[in-house]
Specification:
141 residues; mainly beta; four-stranded antiparallel beta sheet
Amino acid sequence: MRRIAAVALTAGTLMAGMAAVGAPAEAATGWKPYNSYSGIDAWGTYSRSGGKTYVKGYLRDTKKNGWTACVRFLFTEGNQKYWSRFKIIGVTSGGTKYNYDGVAKVKISVSSSYSSHLWVQECGRNKKTGKYLYGKGKKLF
């Protein structure tokens, strides 16, 4: 039996959040990256509250084509950057993880105290070479 999951691969460091006392929470806003690649869909919402940015959504691969679907986010605060990348991972009955290529949809979630700007970018990982290909980045705020 195979299970599918989203795995967050992150690079960077988190900065301690500096919440503004009494700051109202922002309503959730929809996000969707530029449609750079056929067969990959990502969408969801983001919100900002208490000095943090919260992202929730879905990542979907619509066909088996030699690529693992992924999406990545860039959070910035001044000159500091925090990257968070999600890809679809399959798990064998023995517990071995692998980069999944086929029809699948997974839920994703990430938050960061870097809250000056947020970017989203569609991507794919080539199953043969292991290299990532990134689409055009979209600035959300």
